[in-house]
Write a structure and sequence with these properties.
mainly alpha, two-stranded antiparallel ribbon
Length: 233
């Protein structure tokens, strides 16, 4: 909650901020490798005890849990909530890990729809245009798309709109995005969290005056899903 308490010298924190993509196939191969290892352990353990009458080696006595396919589950969660936002216009803004059950049949169970919001067709269209502009790295289109969603700042400085839209609706303070945008908004490259915060909320570029409720809920949904996806690998 307090960005000043984040230990930016911690190697684990640095790895998270610069984490590369993990594919579904990489996760599948890891799961297959662990399953093969566990199978070999059962075979070796059975032969040691049943045939050789000796104690199995320590590695064969311990089975390693097979990890979830994090990228597949993360993609599924994004697709479900994208459907809620853009097709239904009714979405859950709080899809944290405690609200997602892994069912015995492999399906996901979603619970606790107590923080939901309805979106008008116009709001859905505007947020879609914003997300497309962000995904396409169309930096000229991002500020007007963000303004169309209802965001306002004192001087309507497009630099603040561009930077804030990426932090809130892209990948958070992701190093590639921040360094790509740094020269465009006048921010130092490899800015630390405190420097970034001064550009977002500290008035370095402009002062935020209006951030509509539906954007707050959408931003929370986006950031919670991003955090959950990060935890899933």
């Amino acid at each position: 909650k307090d960005v000043t308490k984040v230990d930016l010298e911690n190697p684990a924190v640095r790895r998270v901020l610069r984490m590369g993509q993990v594919t579904e196939w990489q996760s599948r191969l890891l799961a297959l490798g662990i399953q093969a290892r566990n199978c070999a352990g059962r075979i070796v353990g059975g032969c040691a005890e049943g045939v050789c009458k000796v104690r199995p080696p320590s590695w064969a006595r311990r089975s390693i849990p097979v990890p979830l396919n994090g990228p597949r589950l993360a993609r599924l969660l994004y697709e479900v909530h994208g459907y809620e936002i853009f097709q239904l216009g009714l979405f859950n803004s709080d899809p944290h890990a405690g609200n997602v059950f892994m069912m015995p049949d492999g399906k996901l169970g979603l619970i606790d729809y107590g923080a939901c919001m309805r979106l008008t067709e116009e709001q859905r269209s505007n947020i879609a245009h914003l997300l497309i502009a962000i995904a396409d790295e169309d930096d000229e289109a991002v500020p007007p798309a963000f303004w169309a969603c209802g965001f306002r700042s004192k001087n309507q400085d497009p630099r603040l709109a561009l930077l804030l839209a990426h932090v809130f609706f892209n990948r958070g303070p992701y190093a590639y995005d921040m360094n790509r945008l740094a020269p465009k908004v006048g921010m130092p490259v490899d800015a630390d969290i405190m420097t970034l915060d001064s550009y977002l909320r500290g008035g370095e570029l402009d002062d935020i005056e209006e951030f509509p409720g539906h954007l707050v809920m959408l931003q929370r949904c986006a950031m919670v899903l991003s955090g959950l996806a990060l935890e899933l690998g």
